[in-house]
Amino acid sequence: MLLLGIESSCDETAASVVENCTSLRSSVIASQAMEHRKYGGVVPELASRRHCENILATVQQALDEADVTVEMLDGVAVTYTPGLIGALLVGVNFAKGLAYAAGKPLIPVHHIAGHIAANYLAHPELRPPYLCLVVSGGHTMLVEVQDYTVFRLLGTTRDDAAGECFDKCARVLGYPYPGGVQIDRAAQHGDPEKYPLPQPHVAGSALDMSFSGLKTAVINTVHHAAQTGEAIDAPSMAASLQTTVARILTEKTELAAAQTGYKTIAMAGGVSANSGLRRAMQAMCDRHGYSLYMPPLSLCGDNAAMIACQGSYQFLAGITADESLNAYASKQLAAMLPGKG
């Protein structure tokens, strides 16, 4: 079984061919990160334009590197939610046109389900059910993966995502976009105990999270230092922030595991590449004897390989869409069933 995956939810135009669910034949990413850096973040209109310019060549390169033709494909999988609506529409409409013209099934993939599936590419032995922490620039959630296409949300952020917190704090500290990786690099040279930061809790919801107050605490500390003429130790602030975020995420995952009884834990999403979080999660799992699965750094960020992988499992489950498939800026991750796109 050969599936083409297409991803265009933010600022990465990506295409990939995956064979038999977990065998990666090709993965091509046309990144816009350096272009958006001058603006300090992703400019939606610019991202959409670049997707239009890049998508045909990116898909063709993925097919060429996989040494397959469109006729050899068994289906076309595409991210249809969540993300920047203009960016999503480029990928969805291209995939619809390609699938229709080639007479191939169209498979709609939820971006978060794709991130979770990245683990199957690196760890084919991982099988549901298990507990997954999903952390990215726009999403932070604890998910019970009951089956390859069946998910139950256990907890989520009530405001900012962990990745957004990193990005906004990186900006105020003077680091360029994308901020998360800059925070990680700077933290290696800082003192994580120098700046005590709050660890917010959500009243009445033990597994939900909040990062807005933490972000505000960092910004206020930096602004206060500037107003009083004090020097901010940026690497130490980065280290303090990274340690606090990792502690919050690890403790919430630990609590979710205790409540659900899962001993198999996975991480997914762009922030799962953070070295401090990876160390903290590994230490927690080692302490309890849990098995921890994390994607390699190359599969943590947005890519189409994860979309093709998840699309493969959905295709086997009979989950496809027709030409009426639309893109959605936001849609809750839930069980996907045949006929429910």
Q: What would you note in describing this structure?
A:
By secondary structure, the chain is of the alpha/beta class. The chain has two domains: 2-117 and 300-316, ATPase, nucleotide binding domain (Nucleotidyltransferase, domain 5, 2-Layer Sandwich); 127-297, ATPase, nucleotide binding domain (Nucleotidyltransferase, domain 5, 2-Layer Sandwich), CATH 3.30.420.40. Helix content is 43%, strand content 19%. It is built from ten helices and ten strands. The chain has a five-stranded mixed sheet with strand order 3-2-1-4-5, with helices on both faces. Helix 2 (44-66) packs parallel to helix 3 (85-102) and helix 4 crosses helix 10 (305-316). The two termini are 21 Å apart.
Protein traits:
single chain; 341 residues; alpha/beta; Nucleotidyltransferase, domain 5; 2 domains; five-stranded mixed β-sheet; 10 helices; 43% helix
Mean pLDDT: 95
Strand order of the largest sheet: 3-2-1-4-5
CATH architecture of the largest domain: 2-Layer Sandwich
Q: Considering the protein shown, what is the CATH homologous superfamily of the largest domain? A: ATPase, nucleotide binding domain
**How much of the residues is beta strand, in percent?**
15-25%
- The number of domains is 2
Decide which structural class fits the backbone: alpha/beta
CATH fold category name of the largest domain? Nucleotidyltransferase, domain 5
How many DSSP helices? 10
Gyration radius (Cα, Å) is 20 Å
Termini gap: 21 Å
Give the overall silhouette. globular
User: What is the helix fraction of residues, given as a range?
Assistant: 40-55%
The CATH C-level class name of the largest domain:
Alpha Beta
Please mark out the parts with pLDDT under 50 across 5 or more consecutive residues, or reply none. Answer: none
Could you tell me the number of beta strands? 10
The major beta sheet can be summarized as: 5 strands, mixed
H/E element order: EEEHHEHEHEEEHHHHEHEH
